[in-house]
Backbone:
């Protein structure tokens, strides 16, 4: 089942992972499958970064989640698809803390 909702002049593309919903609001002309894959890629990066991510990780480390979003998306577009590159950058940023 394709998880897409029409909302005004946009589409909301979402995917459910173990009780958590991840949503992206995109232009009506954007490719649904590309953004479903981007959501999946994002969740895999979170899972690797937090070692089996759960809701509490997202709540108490929201600033880290925003950092992951910043590494993977730029101005609402997919910026990086390589999980290895994203995780490497995240670990470098974490070492600066």
Residues:
């Amino acid at each position: 089942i394709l998880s897409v909702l029409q909302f005004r002049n946009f589409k909301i593309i979402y995917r459910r992972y173990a009780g958590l919903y991840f949503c992206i609001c995109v232009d009506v002309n954007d490719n649904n499958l590309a953004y479903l894959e981007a959501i999946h890629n994002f969740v895999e990066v979170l899972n690797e970064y937090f070692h089996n991510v759960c809701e509490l990780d997202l709540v108490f480390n929201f600033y880290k989640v925003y950092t992951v979003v910043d590494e993977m998306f730029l101005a609402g577009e997919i910026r990086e698809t390589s999980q290895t590159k994203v995780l490497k950058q995240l670990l470098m940023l974490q070492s600066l803390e």
Q: What stands out?
A: The helical segments are 32-50, 55-60, 62-72, 83-95. The mean pLDDT is 92.
